[in-house]
Amino acid sequence: MVLFTELTTAAIIFLIAHILISTLLSKTTGRRRLPPGPRGWPVIGALPYLGAMPHVSLAKMAKKYGPVMYLKVGTCGMAVASTPDAAKAFLKTLDINFSNRPPNAGTLIINFLMLSFLLQNLFTAGTDTSSSAIEWALAEMMKNPKILKKAQAEMDQVIGKNRRLIESDIPNLPYLRAICKETFRKHPSTPLNLPRISNEPCEVNGYYIPKNTRLSINIWAIGRDPDVWEKPLEFNPERFLSGKNANIDPRGNDFELIPFGAGRRICAGTRMGIVMVEYILGTLVHSFDWKLPNDVIELNMEEAFGLALQKAVPLEAMVTPRLNLDVYAP
What we know:
By secondary structure, the protein is α+β, with helices and mostly antiparallel strands. The protein is 41% helix and 11% strand.
């Protein structure tokens, strides 16, 4: 009983101290306006509001609080950018200030076992993100068979059916590349990008961003912003073939489409990742016809949040060869 009383007293003292410190800190920055955001709980901050799908929850918050938000995640302050202009302000205008990862983002390598885990993470990051993009693209095309047929018709015209696709064919396949861009837009593999941290206090859109603030770019929200994209929930590769989006590049130069991030901390494997998705997806679409299993009435398109944004239900399909049979021989 005495132990319980002591623990209760300690907890109350801790909460009171936390509230007092938070109040004092808010007064010191009172003259410096922080970005709007949800009011968090003591100690845990806004963590309960994020749920199982943080990118979706943050996108909903952005509709209420605006393109730049500030919230507490545990005891850490976090800024979230949810529009191309906000992302550009952080990743281009203030690129140097947000060029570092949080201190706990890296792991100290102290033995060969930790080195093996690190290498495994590197390979996983390179394969899971690409494979998830390919799976989403195939799922969207199976849901929209006209897109699949149009992609196959383009490849039949450029490549024919007597050989397989090679990398040098890809520049001559604009519709395939548009499908890949549309997949990067609607289903980014890393919906919140990897976190960064501010080296110094700064100002964004008139708001004060304290030192050591974590930064997350909601790439998922940018790709589904109706102010940026017409009918954003529709999978429409044609949007990248003409008009204002025809020259958009996913390599970090156009902030409407930054599936690999942007600035100094852009993914080092951006170019390889794009080529890998284009090549593997093109090979699969050119080489096979894809259909849903007979017992599948409607394709499940729900997401599963993780290291890569994958389908909650793995894609199952019936495939049949569509090229001359000798092409498949080794």
